[in-house]
Input
Amino acid sequence: MPNDRMPALVQDERLPVISFTGSEQVGYAIMDSVPRKHCTLELGGNGAAVVLADWASDEDLDWAATRIATFSNYQGGQSCISVQRVIADASVYDRLLPRIVAAVEAQVTGDPNDDKTDVGPLISEDAAKRVESWVKEAVGPVPRWPPAAPATAPPSRRPS
Output
């Protein structure tokens, strides 16, 4: 639906509840325009994909990796409901990680109007710079859970 038709839809008395997923600016504008309606706003998310131990077959892990790769990069990763983190049971982690990497590497970047394209461009140069800064921050060892125990106790916990 075009943006210019949304105010009338949101204010329609037949709709007792408004549910919106998107930016704070638009969400609060909607809420302010209908003060007597119940509004459910999801103003940006931190969507997690969870892969549990019972998804351990090769077929399950391949499917999970494909879905994670697809929905973490859907709309160039610019969707507020995209996969932004992956939580994997320790028993499947080492087999899942290379599958996710391979699935992401297999995605085709390019013109979003081309049916062969999986991932299109970011919305602006500023968005590209922001993502580039996140990549630079993320480069390094892949975090594991639970974290490895320190070799020695921190100084404040050492026996005297």
In short: DSSP finds five helices and four strands in the chain. Residues 58-73 form the longest helix (16 residues). The two ends are 69 Å apart (CA to CA).
